[in-house]
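Deliverable D2.4 — example input (structure tokens):
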């Protein structure tokens, strides 16, 4: 019998006052990727504490975790380990000064193209698309955000 290994991921959806959402472009395992800020939950951590830690590590700022937005509701095999199932949890987050985050204008505008490279950029909610993201779960979240945005406006 196979052992079930669940890889729990936590991500923050930060929307600024210009109705843009923050994304991160990164290089891991030699692959370029675009996703929301966040990452893997550590053993012994709660989801909210894990998200706060991930945001502090990546953004360099403390965030406030607001409301739950989405948890993976379909089977997703890890892109990096075929023995792991990924479960991702997304929350809306806020921070006092989101304009302090150093951002770039262009996708994958890294200073050097190397493992661990990371930049942040804003995407307008009015034009967000599944094609802006690399992985199936983020594509689903982008679709849900687009629907939520268009419903409000």
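Example output (designed residues):
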């Amino acid at each position: 019998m196979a052992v079930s290994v669940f890889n729990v991921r936590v991500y923050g959806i930060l929307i600024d006052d210009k109705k843009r959402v923050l994304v991160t472009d990164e290089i891991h395992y030699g692959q370029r990727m675009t996703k929301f800020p966040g990452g893997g939950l550590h053993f012994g951590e709660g989801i909210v504490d894990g998200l706060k830690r991930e945001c502090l590590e990546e953004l360099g700022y403390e965030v406030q975790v607001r409301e739950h937005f989405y948890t993976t509701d379909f089977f997703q095999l890890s892109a990096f380990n075929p023995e792991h199932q990924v479960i991702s949890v997304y929350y809306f987050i806020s921070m006092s000064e989101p304009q302090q985050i150093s951002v770039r204008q262009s996708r994958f505008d890294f200073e050097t193209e190397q493992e661990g490279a990371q930049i942040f950029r804003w995407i307008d909610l009015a034009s967000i698309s599944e094609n802006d993201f690399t992985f199936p779960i983020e594509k689903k979240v982008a679709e849900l955000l687009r629907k939520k945005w268009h419903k409000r406006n």
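Residues 136-152 form the longest helix (17 residues).
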